[in-house]
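4.2 Preliminary Data

To establish feasibility before requesting continued support, the project team ran the inverse folding procedure on a target of 288 residues. The structure was first converted into the token representation described in Section 3, and no sequence information of any kind was made available to the design step. The complete token record follows.
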């Protein structure tokens, strides 16, 4: 070998590209693992209680209605459900998102198992996406079924024999899809917020209470401040207009299509921030 050849620097080996479909398989693996944890573990108890607790009360009311003389109309029951759904959204959907999404990383830290994920050759942004999607699917399943059952039982308790006509020859079915879609969007928006909050706060009680108070008193806020909330944009999908004097809604919600784009864009930005935070996270189990 000549001296000239010896002086040539060794060629640096370029990083090999990831095999085709690797990230999709990794995402699917994380999704399956986390979905089992969200549906069939102790973590799911709070989700099922919040999604189906009001349903059990509505079932008792429907049974009582069938044993007594009918009173009221199906239209009146639909109006009653419109007010009930606001509470269902602001309390049950909110608290379920709080319990599920805020614990996506905190539960692994408390169980001292997060390092197994971080030692695996998986992008942390992909880990965030997989955890978020798994919790989202579990919550979507629960609140799709819970909202539908609650709606039908409230109509049965109030309208009884007129429910079939209201659903299939009136606006009932369209209203049902609107309520289910609103619950789904609420889970997505609140879930993204609490996923990010759970990464920054060891004790999430204070931020959770502050966000809950902000969302709950949204109807009392000035028009400009109303727009800095999730519940304001969800109002665009309410199929039955609420009593403006009672709820004091002074700011007109944006059109439904704009609210959907806004919530999706907001969720994407928050997930990007959560993925960036995950890349800089350091595992410290001491003191947890």
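Position-by-position output of the design step:
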């Amino acid at each position: 070998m000549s001296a000239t050849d010896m002086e040539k620097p060794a060629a640096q080996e370029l990083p090999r590209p990831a095999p085709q479909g690797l990230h999709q398989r990794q995402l699917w693996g994380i999704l399956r693992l986390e979905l089992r944890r969200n549906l069939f573990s102790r973590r799911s108890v709070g989700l099922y209680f919040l999604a189906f607790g009001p349903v059990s009360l509505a079932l008792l009311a429907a049974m009582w209605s069938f044993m007594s003389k009918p009173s009221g109309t199906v239209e009146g029951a639909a109006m009653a459900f419109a007010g009930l759904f606001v509470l269902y959204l602001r309390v049950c959907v909110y608290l379920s998102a709080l319990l599920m999404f805020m614990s996506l990383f905190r539960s692994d830290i408390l169980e001292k198992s997060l390092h197994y994920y971080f030692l695996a050759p998986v992008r942390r942004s992909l880990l965030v996406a997989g955890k978020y999607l798994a919790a989202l699917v579990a919550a979507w399943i629960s609140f799709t079924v819970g909202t539908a059952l609650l709606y039908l039982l409230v109509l049965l308790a109030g309208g009884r024999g007129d429910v079939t006509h209201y659903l299939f020859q009136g606006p009932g079915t369209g209203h049902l899809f609107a309520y289910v879609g609103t619950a789904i969007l609420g889970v997505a928006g609140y879930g993204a917020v609490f996923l990010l909050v759970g990464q920054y706060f060891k004790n999430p009680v204070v931020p959770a209470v502050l966000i809950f108070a902000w969302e709950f008193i949204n109807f009392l806020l000035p028009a400009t401040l109303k727009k800095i909330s999730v519940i304001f944009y969800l109002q665009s999908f309410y199929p039955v207009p609420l009593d403006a004097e009672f709820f004091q809604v002074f700011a007109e919600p944006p059109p439904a299509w704009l609210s959907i784009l806004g919530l999706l864009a907001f969720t994407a930005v928050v997930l990007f921030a959560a993925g960036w935070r995950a890349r800089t996270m350091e595992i410290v189990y001491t003191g947890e």
